[in-house]
Amino acid sequence: MAPRVVIIGASLAGLRSAEAVLAALPAAQVTLIGDEAHAPYNRPPLSKEAVAGLVGADAAQRAAALAKLVFKHRLPEGAVEWRLGERAVAVTASRVVLADGAEVPYDWLIAASGLRPRRLAFAGLEERRHVLRSFDDAALLAASLRPGARLLVVGAGFIGCEIAATAMKLGLKATVIEPQAQPMQAALGPQVAAAMAAFHRAQGVDLRCGLAVTGVSQAGLLLSDGSEVSGDVIVEAVGSIANTEW
């Protein structure tokens, strides 16, 4: 009997896993479960081209932008049961339990559930605070990126730096708070990180390194040196958490 293969996670890893399973076992019954309603799509452009292109976009333009990001695949027509917009919440020895209580039986299970953004451990200003992981996150952030607005980015990793650069091009004022001595220092090393810092500052980014966020105020964020920085839009780019609770 052909195995029932359930893949939790409908992003790149899940999609390529489905392709690999069916290439090896064409008769396998493959189910792909993803908590987003969208087909698997490319995430790295979200912090630059996608966000910039979504500013002021209507529904048709958003749909076209998403279509450009959707991965092409080699899955035979009808070979996969797509369970998009459904979240896995638990797993037993033979079934995956979804958030609505439905159960999906399996013989083999592949975990490709990816990550979600880590959030700051402070309450307040929720209407201004954003993360960037999904296309829907990008669309929500883009709606707030108005010329002249003050953007606060917490975290000077790849996503944080790209969002700040994109915002500057859109006419915003960007401040980036980073606890390390330089942006992306762990990934790039001190010399390249210092060059990256100089580049962003030359573009007008207010880059504040060696500081941590200690709280939220009415105007923006409180920092570890006792200062306060105001912002109309706040992006939390402080790392990620594995989606493994299920």
Summarize the structure.
The chain is an alpha/beta fold. The protein contains seven helices and 17 strands. Helix content is 27%, strand content 28%.
Labels describing this entry:
single chain; 246 residues; alpha/beta; 28% strand; elongated
Topology:
Blueprint: E1 4-8, H1 12-24, E2 29-34, H2 49-54, H3 59-69, E3 80-84, E4 88-91, E5 95-98, E6 103-105, E7 108-111, E8 115-117, E9 129-130, H4 135-142, E10 150-154, H5 158-169, E11 173-178, H6 185-188, H7 190-202, E12 206-209, E13 213-216, E14 220-223, E15 228-230, E16 233-236, E17 240-242
Parallel strand pairs: 1-2, 1-7, 2-3, 9-16, 10-11, 10-16, 11-12
Antiparallel strand pairs: 4-5, 5-6, 8-17, 13-14, 14-15
Question: Your description of this structure?
Answer:
The protein has 246 residues and is an alpha/beta fold. It contains seven helices and 17 strands. The chain has helices at 12-24, 49-54, 59-69, 135-142, 158-169, 185-188, 190-202, and strands at residues 4-8, 29-34, 80-84, 88-91, 95-98, 103-105, 108-111, 115-117, 129-130, 150-154, 173-178, 206-209, 213-216, 220-223, 228-230, 233-236, 240-242. The radius of gyration is 21 Å and the shape is elongated. The two termini are 28 Å apart. 32% of the residues are buried.
